[in-house]
Amino acid sequence: MDRIEVDALYDERGDVSRARPLLQGDVFDGVVLPGFTEEPMLVQIVAHPCAMRTGASLTPRITVAPVEPHQKIKGTGWNSNVRLMPLAELTNNGHFAAKFVDVTACPAGLLTRDRRIATLSHQGIYVLQQRLIKHYTRTEMGLEILRSQSAPVLTEAELLWDWLECVLTESETAEDKMLDAETAVFETWMRDGDPSPQQRLRFEIHHTDVRREAQRAAAARAKTRRAQG
After folding, report:
1. Which domain holds residue 186?
2. Peptide bond preceding 49 in cis form (omega within 30 of 0)
3. What is the pTM assigned to this prediction?
4. Are residues 198 and 160 in the same domain?
């Protein structure tokens, strides 16, 4: 299976943007998992981005894996530890790993933006998907296949992130209700038209055009909101 170095694994650690949508691979601290322990713990979302949402809303429960301290996995260890997702240097305290054998459903309300401590890069998400498939099926899937299948939803998540940071002020981004309200505006824009921007994202040849259109729409909305005071 594919290895990934720490610098390529994470998108953000520690100070994670509140405007970034919740995605597969996100790590949260301070979560009390029902049926495990009463002590707060680290967890990682392992559900695919499409499986954790109904439209723009999160499902009531999201599949997560407990994250525990673990020695750093090196070299051939990436091939032999198929029950784990290595999370080297996750925090300043050392190395960790998500445990697939303890995957469970977590109430979505526990996975708050303020508890999120790390997000994976796109490549990191593909590696996580590859390891999940290997764990459950013993079949190894190439990263390029996983990339092609996940590109539409991950690109849409990027567009939403850019949209929120463009339209909302810093103080507004600190409020969940403002983020949720503006996310709904973005979702309406993504689904408007025939074909809609969301439908066009199914084909990578259209990604650049949709990204440009989203940037223009976000800039126009930001200008309108400023004019309205």
Report:
1. 149-227
2. no
3. 0.94
4. yes
